[in-house]
Amino acid sequence: MNTKENKEQLSIERNDYSEILRHAVAVIEHARTEIAKHINGYVSTAYWKIGQMLHERKIESGYGDSVVKRLSGDLKERYPKMGVSPRQLWNMKKFYERYAGHEEKVLRSVALLPWSHNLLLLSKGLDDNATLYYATETARKGWNRDLLLNAIKLNMYGTQSLTRVDNNFNRTLPSEQASYANEVFCSSYNLGFLGVTSPILELELENRLVKAITRFLMELGSGFTFIGNQHVLEYNGKESKVDMLFFHRGLRCLVAIDLKIGAFKPEYAGKMNYYLSLLDRLERGTDENRPIGIILCAEKDHVEVELALEDMGKPIGVADYQLIVPKEKLKKVLTDEIKAFSEEKDHDI
């Protein structure tokens, strides 16, 4: 085999390996999520039954304290690694009494959550609808306890009915894939885990997301595999860079994310359409679906987004994000900072 054939074979092997690695990671991540769900289900079932037993035997705080304390000691002796303190036993009783007799779908949803998440939901006194929403979103997106707490503080349940889907998926994707894509992608994302307390530029926001990629993947939801940031697409002698590139196992497609620290502008849609054309031509696998683009910005206007996407031929969605700093305050500070920077730059010239 000559040198040229060796290089071609090496190139093919590298491309094949990237595809193999991408799919293997996606399969493992999916398996880990499913295993975690089963473990949480077993734990919740055990805690539910202990809580049921305490309820049916009418063990109440006060005269029942000694019984619970003794039960805790005996269980700890047998199961030293299991959380069976007196306080936890009372929590199990509360858990049973909170959901006993309620809709089965609510019970099924909380049964999939880690115990710490269930204790948080119990402490907030939420009704069944809010509980179902937060439990479902937690299971779907893999939220840790902090992300769940942030979602509750931001009243995501109260505002989610007001959010509108800003994308053209129904027009640019087959009906089944469009329906699935609308389930996968949200209209708004919570990036409070980044701990932003002062103005940052787009590159800094991107760097923070890359450093906290595991938590960002949790916020995006299950099925995503991170490929890289500032992903280079070279065509016709020119380079373009996608801020963040992912692969979604269920949708079987590449997902490009363009980050913006300000409000959505119509020209962002054209730029994303171009990125998707390059991805479709340069990197889309033979068995993969069309790449999807998401423009993630600080805020958006539904009418403006609708008009911008009206004639776009590629599947594009627009979502906003929530930071710890109030959006309006951050926008003003950023505007002032960018203005000052521009004036300083003009002065230097």
Structure description:
By secondary structure, the chain is α/β, with parallel strands linked by helices. It has two domains: 158 residues, no CATH class; 180 residues, 3-Layer(aba) Sandwich (Trna Endonuclease, Chain: A, domain 1), CATH 3.40.1350.10. The protein has 15 helices and six strands. A six-stranded mixed sheet has the order 1-6-5-4-3-2, sandwiched between helices. A hairpin with a 4-residue loop joins strand 3 and strand 4. Helix 1 crosses helix 3, helix 4 packs parallel to helix 6 and helix 11 packs across helix 12. The protein is elongated, with a radius of gyration of 25 Å.
The biggest beta sheet is recorded as: 6 strands, mixed
| Total count of strands | 6
Structural class: alpha/beta
Q: What integer is the average pLDDT?
A: 78
The CATH architecture category of the largest domain equals: 3-Layer(aba) Sandwich
Whole-number tally of structural domains? 2
Please state the CA-atom Rg, rounded to the nearest Å: 25 Å
Provide the CATH topology of the largest domain. Answer: Trna Endonuclease, Chain: A, domain 1
Order the strands across the largest sheet as they lie in space: 1-6-5-4-3-2
How much of the polypeptide forms β-strand, as a percent range?
Answer: 5-15%
Q: In CATH's first tier, which class of the largest domain applies? A: Alpha Beta
What portion of residues is helical?
55-70%
Report, as a whole number of angstroms, the end-to-end distance.
58 Å
Q: Uncertain regions: pLDDT < 50 for 5+ in a row?
A: none
| Silhouette | elongated
H/E element order = HHHHHHHHHHEHHEEEHEHEH
How many helices?
Answer: 15
